[in-house]
Amino acid sequence: KLTEDKKFIHITDKTGIGKLKLIGTFNREILDKSTIKRVRLIKRADGFYCQFVLDIERVEPFDSTGKEVGIDLGLNHFLTDSNGDKIDNPRFLRKAERRLKKAQRKLSKKKKGSQKRLKQKSKVARLHLKVSRQRKDFAVKTAKALIQSNDLVVYEDLKVSDMVKNPQLAKSISDASWSMFTDWLDYLGKIHGKFVVAVNPKYTSQECSSCGNIVKKTLSVRTHVCSCGCVLDRDENAAINILARANTVGRTEIQALGQTIHCLLGESLVDKVTG
């Protein structure tokens, strides 16, 4: 139960926890008995957190920009868009590996069951938690910037669970956290009234964005060169194809914001939505 000032919560189950003070920055106004559906206490490496599940409709529309963008997710760069802009891959886990390995070596030397081992185990857990929070912060900020700048964002519907089966790329793919990023894209698109579309990734890197010919290339080839004269960065070429698949895939149905949008061949989804 919440106190009237919403600064404390009473845990009334049989655990005997009792009264807890709520600290941190959050909007207390949205905490109401009619909207709170579930409350959970969560233990993390740096302490306990109170999680509220609320039944509310969150709609915060951004202004229309009339812009659309396709994005190609990668490992050399986190993403490359259809305008040729790139965002570096932050590689949070890779950057933290030295500290993690050092902390884990210390942990392995501590006597099992000792207070020193428990303390060191907590240090390792906090390092992992920091990486997790860095990934989330990066995903949210990057997704929000794209949503705010565009009316339509298109990305590849990658099967990440299959891709991480590659032992040479698994750690890098996991560190990039593509799935977290696209989940935030979908979520923020709904909240802010923008359209987010996932398309089939097949041949987006091999197909020429200028003429449609298939130009086969290995992962090591970073420049797309077609006989039609088109020369582009490989990832930019893919991003252009990704955007085109949402705009010109023949008569298709695209599920976004709970609506089914029909597009004809050559018709822009942005024009369809804003027209």
TrEMBL record:
InterPro entries: Cas12f1-like_TNB, RNA-guided_DNA_endo/Transpos, Transposase
One GO term of the biological process aspect: DNA recombination
Domain Cas12f1-like TNB residues, every copy: 178-242
Domain Probable transposase IS891/IS1136/IS1341 residue range list: 52-166
Keywords, comma-separated and alphabetical: DNA recombination, DNA-binding, Transposition
Gene Ontology molecular-function annotations: DNA binding
Domain of life: Bacteria
Alphabetical list of Pfam families matching this protein: Cas12f1-like_TNB, OrfB_IS605
Family of this protein: In the N-terminal section; belongs to the transposase 2 family. In the C-terminal section; belongs to the transposase 35 family.
NCBIfam families: guided_TnpB (NF040570), IS200/IS605 family accessory protein TnpB-like domain (TIGR01766)
Protein name according to UniProt: IS200/IS605 family element transposase accessory protein TnpB
Organism: Microcystis aeruginosa G11-04
